[in-house]
Amino acid sequence: MTDLAPHELRILVAVEEEGTFTSAATRLGTTQSAVSHAVRGCERKLGAVLFERGRHGARPTEAGARAVGYARRVLRLLATMGAEVRGAGADGPLTGTLRIVAFRSVAAHLLPPVLARLAERHPGLGTRVRIVREIGRGTAGEVADGRADLGLATLPAEGPPPVPGLVTARLYEEAYALAHPQGHPDPRRLPLVDWDENCGSYTRRWWREQDWIPPATVDVEDDAVAVSMVAQGLGMAIMPATALLGAPPGLAVTPLDPNPPTRLVGYVTTPELAPTPAVRALIRELRDLPLPEGLAPARTQPARPGATR
């Protein structure tokens, strides 16, 4: 197999993001025929069909989606290569932009002090944060597909990582608690307010064992909306600790004793980006973050590709 050249990688990414060869050509300042020829060349080199062509445009096949993910990751390394090489062996300032993905509660409550300290120590290093819901492949999928350098993700207590092939490490563990309107005499009898990401959490077994939890009468997309509805008296919710940080007036929180469900939160990155100075600096700040009440440091081991801790 002949290696793909950087311009071929850019074409694959452009076709996947634009959806048609014509739009990709316009974006890259070339012709549709040149894009089509390059894609066919990539398919010959990789030995797989990368895009389904039709009236709908160009849709990546399963092989194509993997190829585009690797293409983004290689292009990201090429983009950071100059700064990395120039700074080799030197303690110079970090520059560039770190791309971070996180689910909402972590982005709102834990990332700000981390990024403030990072900016203070490395003023030349910028950050771009996107909120990604922890449904399906979640933040880990964004990292694996080359759209982010590091993601903050929920991690399974046991079993394989959420997306294979990434470097993963636990940061903290948080307990779930019962959120309900203040002053209610029997909050467990209230209707249940739930949110989509909670349905995909690693607490399903605990939920199935609770005969007092009714089916949800209100189901929303965002945990902050669920908390707000509970504070307004619309029901109760079973929420992780980070989702309850900065809770609005009118909300009370009762522990789910004696054995509450918990979830693990950690970071995910790619093997090639894990040793870079910018990502290492971000990980240091994440590890040094003083945890708010309700969050406990997770037991950790040295990070390694494809493993969770």
From TrEMBL:
Q: Write out the entry's keywords from A to Z.
A: DNA-binding, Transcription, Transcription regulation
Q: Where is the HTH lysR-type domain?
A: 1-61
Return the GO cellular component terms, semicolon-separated: protein-DNA complex
Q: Name one GO molecular function term.
A: DNA-binding transcription factor activity
Q: Do you know which InterPro entries this protein is assigned to?
A: LysR_HTH_N (IPR000847), LysR_subst-bd (IPR005119), WH-like_DNA-bd_sf (IPR036388), WH_DNA-bd_sf (IPR036390)
Please name the PROSITE patterns in this protein's record. HTH_LYSR
> Which PANTHER family does the entry link to?
HTH-TYPE TRANSCRIPTIONAL REGULATOR CYNR, TRANSCRIPTIONAL DUAL REGULATOR HCAR-RELATED
Q: Which family does it belong to?
A: Belongs to the LysR transcriptional regulatory family.
Give the protein name, as stated in the record: LysR family transcriptional regulator
